[in-house]
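Data availability excerpt. The first of two example chains:
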Amino acid sequence: MEMYLMRHGEAVPRSEWEGSDSSRPLSKEGKADLERAARGMARGDCSFELILCSPYQRAKETATLVASCRGQGDVLSLPDLAAGARPDAIQGALNPYLGKAPFLIVGHIPDLALFAARLTGKMDLWEGGLAPGEVVALETGSPGLSWGQGTILWRRKLEEW
């Protein structure tokens, strides 16, 4: 089973945001970078029909930008993908959607990096993290999500699209 993990785009810095962290949006530059990358994703080797995302504003904006550039509207916000999600919670949140793979998951760091590291057994994913907007393609090797059984197919930063 194939899936794509994407860190949300560059957000407004915390020091410049007075609201809650969950409502912190993408920065102007973050939106512009994501729009360029999303157009590249639509032309590239990133094929999915469903986007699952964190309920945080910056993740929802990222998912919506990607969906609109691809001409699709299936974006589902899942509370279990909020910032601070542990790998087991992410795994549980994805279970109802495994039959709809491949799909894109838009979330946060270190959550997605730790989840990818657990799936693949490659701890350098967790240690190095993911840049804003970076996408990692994974093959889990089965219809389920078994820890340590996955493989990294590729990684791409925003500027590489």
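And the second chain:
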Amino acid sequence: EGFVETTLDNGNYSYEYVYQYKDHLGNVRLNYAKGPNGLVIKEENNYYPFGLKHKGYNNVIVGRDHKFDYLNQEFHDDLGLNWHSFKWRFADPSIGRFFGSDPIAEEFYYQTNYQFASNNPIWKIELEGLEGEPVNDGTDLNDSDTAWYLNRVGNKKILTFGLHNIDFGIVERREASLAGPVATYGFNVGAAIYNSISLTWRGGMNGQTLTDQVADGVQGLGETVQRIENGEGTIQDAENLTAGGVTFAVARTLRISTTRSSTATSQTATVAQQVVAEAQRLNPNVNTTTLTPGPNASRSIPARSTSTRFTRAERSAINEIGETDGCHTCGSRNSGRASGNFTPDHQPPSALVPNGTSQMLYPQCLACSASQGGTVSGLVRRGYDPNFIGPVQQ
């Protein structure tokens, strides 16, 4: 809803408050306002699936004609073109296709380079003329297109492990207790640990990254130590230092335990070694650089399947890793693509492992992705058999 400029018969301008009705794709289907005799329809838009407007009964335009209509893209009707201009390409709604080839077509080899919204315009929107995006208004908690580590509202990264929008509150520190100073000290240390977890939870739901929160925590502990060194320390500073030490010890223990029990990661490394051995058996001169997690591999996310139809959440996570740590093969922080997207690279490569193999996704740049494609294709042509290395179950 908002203000709209209209022209009166005498040539003067007036402003009035209008209301908009939008469909599930975000298209404005109806503009209406309150007139002296009731509601007045200012503009009505009805679309065929790919954005072509119905004719004959939705041509009501009172005031200025809005050229930004379907998916909020500009409509060009000059010279009889009737095109929608997206950032990278022009789309013809009458045929449901783009005129130019997809700049990131290598990521969508399973469909035509000229498709619109993955040929699914009812439940997908087109992003800048590059790729189709599943519609998710953030209210469906069962929407698989929103990952567990993203806030359902706004898709911000959070640290709540799927338990969203829960506020644990803050425990107030006690100055004194009938149980004595030792018991009071222990209570306050426990409260400090609890509050740090609660504040971390809150920060995550507000989109603050773990890196930023750790940096803030380190800065706070540094200031505490500085006060103690200057002889200005308080009993509360001592409680916070004790709480910080306990939290660090627990986190270190959990990290070691998680690392030792990370069967998916260790399994990936084992399968990668088998893949390399089989590749070298077929071709002793093969370049195996892209067949395993590269020297710059750091963080990764689990692969749901061998599918290259990645969700927005997966792409966002891979791009964040790539922009920070770079391509896992060459270390470049430049994806090499006009879209800026890194390729979510399945490791080990899907064509070289048996069905059911656990895989991880790492960010990969365009050049390394192309190199990997050539290597894998060459091995397949030589008769590479994924089952030769033995089935590996998740």
